Fold:
Amino acid sequence: MKPVFLAGKAIYPSKIVCIGRNYVAHAEELGNEVPTEPVVFIKPASAIGNVLHSELGEPLHYEAEIAFMVASGKLVAATLGLDLTRRETQNRLKNKGLPWERAKAFDGSALFGEFVPCHGSEDLALTFSCDGKLLQQGHTGLMLFSPEQLLAEVQTFLSLDDGDILMTGTPAGVGALISGGHYHGELFQKGNLLTRVSWQAR
Ligand code: ZN
Structure:
């Protein structure tokens, strides 16, 4: 198992809870209907990686997301996370109404910057770019369900252990990773930089 880092300290989450279609513009770009309740799926702890692959059997797509760490049932820290996706496989599975694990839960499908303590989810914004070109921009104010609403909903049927991660869905602009590309993510709260992360795609 690979750790994530909270202010320099290694943490081993038991699971990552992910949300689909939490930004209207992203639901529309993939031709999905806008949900009336959160779309929830899980990546196991074994999905945590530290290498950004552009291809694992098929091209991988990036989904940059605001990610929270949970402790004592609360959102205590945040970073930018990548929900890496085998989109061709996901489309094939979705069309058959099958589960997404092969497309979403594979080893190395969850990458995270360093978590830093946050003060709730108010006014959190992310940017994700490749070689200076902006790819995605997200903001907690644009989410269909706020991070606190997601947390409450998830806790109606799942126990969250300290260190578990909640990913809050990706904004519009998803696409295929490019081998050799330099990818940069930044997370801001109230306009101040909280944390940044860089990866070069293999
Ligand atoms: Zn996602």
